[in-house]
Amino acid sequence: MKTDKRILGINGLGRIGKLTLWQSVYRKRFDEIVVNLGRQVGTSIGDIVHYLERDSTYGHLSGFLHGYNAEAVIRDVDEASGTMVVDGVTVRFLRTQRNPAAIEWAGHGVRLVVDTTGQFLDPSLPPEHPKGSVRGHLLAGVEKVVVSAPFKLAGKNTEMPDDAVTTVMGINGDDYDPRIHALISNASCTTTCLAHMIKPLLNHFGADALLSASMATIHAATSSQDVLDTLPKAGKTDLRKSRSVMNNIILTSTGAAKALGLVIPDMRRIGFIAESVRIPTTTGSLIILVVNLQEKPEGPEIRRQMINGIYQDTADRDSAGYLRYSDQQNVSSDIIGMPKAAVVIEGNETHTRTATAAINLSHAQGIPKELLTALPDTLIRVPITQAVIYGWYDNEMGSYVNMLCDRIESVADHM
After folding, report:
1. Which among 216, 225, 232 has a CA at the least distance from the CA of 287?
2. Which of the 8 DSSP states describes residue 326?
3. Which of 172, 250, 374, 392 could crosslink 335 through cysteines, CB 3.0-4.6 Å?
4. Sign of the CA dihedral 56, 61, 62, 65?
5. 3-class DSSP assignment, residue 252
6. pLDDT at position 383, please?
7. Count of CB atoms situated within 10 Å of the CB of 97
8. How many other C-beta atoms lie within 10 A of the C-beta of residue 400?
């Protein structure tokens, strides 16, 4: 079906899918939205209305759109056609096909899809893959697919296809080339925050001065965790994800370090470790970033005021508002729903410590033996400053979904 309407397809209506729908209705950049559920929901379309109208974290949809005293915004609900009008935007629900290749996107005029299922993440799989593939959307008539998660290549020696790219808005958003790329990963909420914390330091000091880095994200719970303790499914190796998310601090893993190298190539040659800890909150997360920087004898000393000044200056020049700097004493709930902010730097808690590291050149690689023998002392002393930086992010609506919608709209603008 050919149409002049701007129509967005959303595959999946979990946390990110639902909030993407909320944001898209608010922004009014699309004339119609087609949501693929892939299954029947509840007893009628009224149960979808119930799900869309309210949210345990962000409140009522009407309040999000128009404020506290707003009236209901969902009207003209039609079971037969699977449609409703949400604040003036027609939303259509498809409830039969789960395999991307079989979804009736073309029949509803959908050229752009955001896949929020978290299930189809390997861009190297063929579109006809029996378990489904992100490329299946293309087979179903779509021209561009934005994925709300990092790509994951199943094969160790598999290379990223030329038509797939990973971007973080405000960092490498221009890496997307509409002439080449059909599959666009919007990375993850943690990678998005981390990239906006690292980039200002690289811009100021240069990659050579950044000796190593590590991060830990204190991350809100996600739907991959269980409310109460459960028996792990067959093949599951992380037993902690089967423990109650309501009662535990749970150690887990994050792919942020690997994804960071895709959006900031300089990070591939810098030693970097990323860890994750899940806590019993619904959203609002924190990255604790530790970087080791080499001091320059002729340069200014790297101290807390300098680090905070770098972030303050970046925030002042960031017209998109992706990076924000705060001198306030914040807690996680303060940043929930904060629009556009990929990260809020907690300047109060920035710390630095400078020490002299003793390095034995005889243990270094690539130094000729005769040169080492000629040296009066193979021990050199290098001043290194360790900086600890805290960055808040709303891993659902405020940070990630806002920026996901910016990515979606920028792709749509070039179609």
Report:
1. 216
2. E
3. 392
4. positive
5. strand
6. 86
7. 18
8. 28
Name the amino acid, one letter, at 259: A
The tens digit of pLDDT for each residue in 107-121 reads: 999 999 999 999 999
Collapsing DSSP states into helix, strand and coil, what is residue 65? helix
Residue with tokens 């690997």: 258
- Give Cα 37 to chain centroid, integer Å: 22
Question: Strand, coil or helix: what is 216?
Answer: strand
Hey, what are 171's tokens?
A: 């960092």
DSSP structural state of residue 253: -
Burial class (CB in 10 A: 0-12, 13-18, 19+), 31: middle
Cβ-contact 204, 313 below 8 angstroms: no
Buried b (16+ CB within 10 A) or exposed e, 327-356: eeebebeebbbbebbbbbbbbeebebeeee
How far apart (Å, rounded) are the C-alpha atoms in residues 104 and 41?
18
Whether 2 shows a pLDDT value over 70: the answer reads no
Nearest Cα residue to 414 out of 168, 141, 180: 180
CB contact at 8 A, 260 and 191: yes
- Per the CB < 8 A criterion, the answer to whether 343 and 323 are in contact is yes
- Report the percentage of the chain scoring pLDDT > 90: 82
Half-sphere exposure (CA, 13 Å, Cβ side) for 150?
18
- The residues, any chain, with a CB within 8 Å of residue 181's CB and separated by 6 or more, are 144, 163, 164, 165
- Positive/negative CA dihedral, 355, 360, 364, 369: positive
Between CA 267 and CA 194 the distance in angstroms is: 12
Tokens (6 digits) for 411:
């792709």
If one counts every other C-beta atom within 10 angstroms of the C-beta of residue 173, the result is 16
Phi and psi of 287, rounded to 5°?
-105, 130
Q: Cα-atom radius of gyration of the chain, to the nearest Å?
A: 24
Q: State how far the alpha carbon of 149 is from the alpha carbons of 83, 316, 345, in Å.
A: 28, 29, 24
Give whole-number Cα distances, 197 to 136, 203, 243, 263, 398, in Å: 35, 11, 31, 13, 17
Indicate the residue type of 367.
I
Between these two residues, 37 and 358, which has the higher pLDDT value?
Answer: 37
